[in-house]
Amino acid sequence: MARIIDGKKISLQIKDELKERVQALKEKGREVTLAVIQVGEDPASSVYVRNKKKGCEYIGIGSLSYELPEDIPMQELLALIGELNEREDVNGILVQLPLPSHMDEDAVIRAISPQKDVDGFHPQSVGALCIGQPGFVSCTPAGIIQLLKRSGIEIAGKECVVLGRSNIVGKPMGILLLRENGTVTIAHSKTENLKEVTSRADILIAAVGKPKMVTREYVKEGAVVIDVGINRDGDNKLCGDVDFEDVEPVCSAITPVPGGVGPMTIAMLLYNCVASAG
Ligand code: NDP
Question: Mind listing the pLDDT tens digit for each residue in 59-89?
Fold first, then answer.
């Protein structure tokens, strides 16, 4: 039977460590504040935003909330970001994605000061990550590294296969695993012999956004399987990119959905906020 990697528990450990750091900062007279901007009322985004604010409360940092109408002109959003960039009492700025289709998401991301880019999506943050310089790291992949490390799973020298090459998960994941001295392959929709490629992995990270796509044919016996996916199955039940029931008996460790990678993403966002305050 595989070990279940408990993201809820590990994320709580991190949040409790952050709580102490926030307290220490407060004693030195330093407050930490995250500004969260949501455009429109997408229900999934509202849930994420609510959870982020709850996380801020838990570790004792402030959150400023901006709920903007769906049809707000892009210039107004950029002006708000400009203001928040200037404000000394705001440490981190988060714009909840996806944005409505009339907005240029890349331009919005570029408008956030790299010093306040707690999501780690700004090209400067991504560039710094690529060349091993300090900067904010995208929260989901950073959370996965923490999950692996805090579960005592060795990355150095291991075959790591990342399934998916998005800018927010797959690519930074590959770079972080490389930084930890893993031997990294990034697979995607054009990869030939996909099952053969993923079956080489000692550590397999699935970030495809396809419900239960990864079955045991994709997995080497004894591999560690990390499931990033957040999907709905045919019965509208939350599920990952991995077919948990099918894969769990053949792997050595696996993350569940929910309760695996998801809680780590928020913990690392909070980590970035605290780091931005020094
Ligand atoms: P994207 O849709 O941006 O990227 C999906 C990637 O998977 C692409 O690179 C695509 O390849 C690849 N892919 C799609 N279908 C196949 C296939 N059949 N075979 C091989 N590769 C395939 O998704 P994200 O990276 O944003 O998200 C992935 C999943 O993770 C989603 O379920 C999302 O909801 C979830 N997620 C979870 C988070 C969390 O906190 N737990 C945070 C962020 C995302 P190509 O590039 O060739 O098109």
Answer: 999 999 999 999 999 999 999 999 999 999 9
224-227/203-206 β-pairing: parallel
Q: Whose CA is nearest to atom 31 of ligand 1?
A: 209
For residue range 142-169, what is the model confidence (pLDDT) as tens digits?
999 999 999 999 999 999 999 999 999 9
Peptide bond preceding 258 in cis form (omega within 30 of 0): yes
* Exposed / middle / buried, residue 23 (Cβ in 10 Å: 0-12, 13-18, 19+): exposed
Structure tokens at 7: 């993201």
Pocket of ligand 1 (CB under 6 A): 140, 163-166, 168-170, 188-190, 194, 207-210, 228-231, 261-262, 265
266: nearest Cα among 180, 146, 175: 146
